[in-house]
Amino acid sequence: MGYSGADGVRNARESLGKALEALQQEADVPEEVLGITQNVARAISALFEAQHASTEPDGKTCVKSALGTLSQTLALLQDVKSQHAGVLTATESIADVISILFPLTNKPSSPPRSGLPKLSPIPMSMLPPPAPKPKGERRRIEANLGATTQSNFYVGFSAEIAHGGVFLATYEALAKDTSVSMLVTLPGGFEFECDGYVRFVRDPMDFASESEPGMGIQFEELSTEARELALRFVRQRPPMFYDV
Hints:
By secondary structure, this protein is an alpha/beta fold. The chain has 2 domains: 6-105, Invertase/pectin methylesterase inhibitor family protein (Butyryl-CoA Dehydrogenase, subunit A, domain 3); 124-241, no CATH class. 37% of the residues lie in helices and 18% in strands. It has helices spanning 6-23, 31-51, 56-77, 87-105, 224-234; strands spanning 139-144, 152-155, 165-169, 179-186, 190-202, 214-219, 240-241. The chain has a 7-stranded mixed beta sheet. α1 (6-23) runs antiparallel to α2 (31-51). The chain is globular and about 55 Å long.
């Protein structure tokens, strides 16, 4: 029967080819950009498998794999420090591809957008909503992130990690908009603290959902040190994608 999203996947794969070409257009590709090209190549490979998948579950699994890799790639592109002519083109192409792939794995919270994003400035439509005003003391929570934990960082279309947050896998989620003070612990004994609020909740009783139960804690502000620690983790493990 094949995968029903094969046509969309094919279009996405062709767009990624343009992103890869843009990143490789210079003879001497910087090392940090070279790592990003490897990510793009992995995503293209996953989409090729999705396009030719024989079943719906297999196709969806491959698309999710590509989406995770591309979310990581967008976050890393935001942190490229070397001058490279293909970074902006690749960023726009990859964001377009994510807008194609995301509806194939999740019901979108808003219509897919195109022409995303510019490195600077970031359109208001891609930014998270204003944080709610805390009511009383913030709830103290801890998020332990590792290589295989269900908990992980998440990013949106802006790709900026500071505009994202942490998905905390738990069966005891707080109410949406609850203000929190969060300790994030990372492998190697690294940690940071930040304020945030509950952006979204995944109900453990929603048996139709394939996602883990838990809650998304949106960052209100990240220090420079915290952002660097988050990016260090993201370089090793792709973040989740959450449509803002």
